């Protein structure tokens, strides 16, 4: 069997498993099974199919089940479409007319095209720093096992490495590990010393580590506050324009729209804190949109406006996207 044939077989197997799991899950929800019973089934599937270790399966179930149950209980899509939503192309192109959405734009006339002149070599320039995906891990431990069986390694929970080759290094590791604080500090210090003339900084998120089965709102907010302080201390005079990463939420990729306002599912816990933390760099005039959807627009200087969008609402891993795909989130 060649590689292409093997991949086709694997995709078919994955598709069948996801469709069956989704079908069973929807049946349980519609038949009134309790959340506890559904969680037990999800956990058993995860362990039996060896999707992850028992510890990871347990954490994933506890973190994600409530949201999945809430959303699937309110949508009218079938298992095939759930598979297409979760996995993507491997499940085939599932068409549903419910997702056809016509958006009416205001009747503003299209402006005439103006040919832009190439700036002179002596024209003013910007020096812009773009930072992204630091994924600082406060539990990174030098010498721990970097070749573990879980999605994230290099922690004491993975044990001390049995050989030197398996050990997490001082500055990080190229295997399944995130970034130790010492590396983030060193990187920012180097940038500060090498580029003291940065005009502004674009900071596009993804701050927490990848232990998505083990995260809490409190822990993610702690990471947010620590990294904001780190940036503020390291670049005290530079304008910083942040954007939200998909890992800032707990559980990961969970971005309910503003009209979901019950405490268990609302995202206000994150956006309210973002507004407080980002206020170090942003004007109070953007507070309303940051608290509503973690987006904003600011004038950097005359003739130059910056727009920070929260595109996580459109992430195919955001379960709320499947709930009302034709409804405007705002």
Describe this structure in words.
The protein is mostly helical and 330 residues long. The chain is 36% helix and 7% strand. The protein has eight helices and five strands. Strands 1-2-3 form a three-stranded parallel sheet, with no helix packed on it. Strands 4-5 form a two-stranded antiparallel sheet. Helix 5 links the parallel strand 1 (128-131) and strand 2 (200-203). Helix 1 (3-30) packs across helix 4, helix 6 (217-234) packs parallel to helix 7 and helix 7 runs antiparallel to helix 8. It is globular and about 65 Å long. The mean pLDDT is 87.
Integer tally of domains: 2
CATH topology of the largest domain: Purple Acid Phosphatase, chain A, domain 2
Q: Which percent range fits the helix content?
A: 25-40%
Going by helix content, strand content and strand pairing, the class is mainly alpha
Main sheet summary? 3 strands, parallel
The CATH class label of the largest domain is Alpha Beta
Taking pLDDT < 50 over at least 5 consecutive residues as the criterion, the unreliable ranges are none
Oligomer: single chain
- CATH architecture group name of the largest domain: 4-Layer Sandwich
Helix and strand sequence: HHHHEHEHEHHEE
Number of strands: 5
What is the molecular shape?
globular
Radius of gyration using CA atoms only: 23 Å
Average of per-residue pLDDT values: 87
> Widest sheet: strand order?
1-2-3
Determine the strand fraction and express it as a percent band: 5-15%
Q: What's the number of helices?
A: 8
Our measurement of the CA-to-CA distance between the termini, rounded to an integer number of angstroms, reads 50 Å
């Amino acid at each position: 069997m060649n590689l292409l044939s093997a991949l086709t077989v694997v995709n078919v197997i994955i598709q069948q498993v996801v469709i069956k799991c989704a079908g069973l899950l929807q049946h349980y929800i519609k038949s009134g099974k309790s959340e506890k019973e559904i969680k037990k089934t999800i956990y058993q599937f995860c362990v039996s199919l060896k999707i992850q270790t028992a510890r990871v399966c347990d954490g994933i179930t506890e973190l994600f089940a409530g949201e999945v149950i809430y959303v699937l209980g309110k949508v009218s899509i079938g298992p095939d479409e759930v598979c297409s939503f979760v996995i993507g192309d491997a499940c085939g192109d599932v068409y549903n007319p419910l997702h056809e959405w016509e958006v009416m734009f205001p009747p503003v006339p299209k402006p005439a095209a103006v040919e832009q002149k190439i700036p002179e070599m002596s024209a003013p320039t910007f020096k812009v720093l773009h930072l992204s995906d630091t994924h600082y891990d406060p539990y990174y431990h030098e010498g721990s096992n970097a070749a573990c069986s879980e999605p994230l390694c290099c922690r004491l929970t993975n044990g001390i490495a049995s050989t030197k080759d398996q050990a997490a290094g001082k500055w990080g590791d190229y295997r399944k590990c995130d970034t130790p604080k010492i590396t983030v500090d060193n990187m920012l210090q180097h940038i500060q010393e090498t580029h003291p003339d940065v005009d502004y900084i674009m900071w596009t998120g993804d701050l927490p580590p990848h232990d998505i089965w083990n995260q809490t709102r409190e822990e993610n907010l702690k990471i947010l506050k620590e990294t904001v302080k780190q940036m503020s201390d390291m670049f005290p005079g530079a304008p910083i324009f942040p954007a939200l990463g998909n890992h800032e939420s707990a559980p990961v990729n969970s971005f309910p729209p503003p009209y979901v306002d019950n405490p268990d599912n609302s995202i206000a816990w994150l956006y309210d804190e973002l507004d407080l933390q980002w206020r170090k760099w942003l004007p109070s005039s953007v507070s309303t949109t940051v608290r509503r959807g973690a987006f904003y627009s600011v004038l950097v200087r005359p003739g130059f406006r910056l727009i920070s969008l929260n595109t996580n609402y459109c992430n195919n891993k955001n379960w709320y996207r499947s709930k009302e795909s034709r409804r405007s989130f705002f």
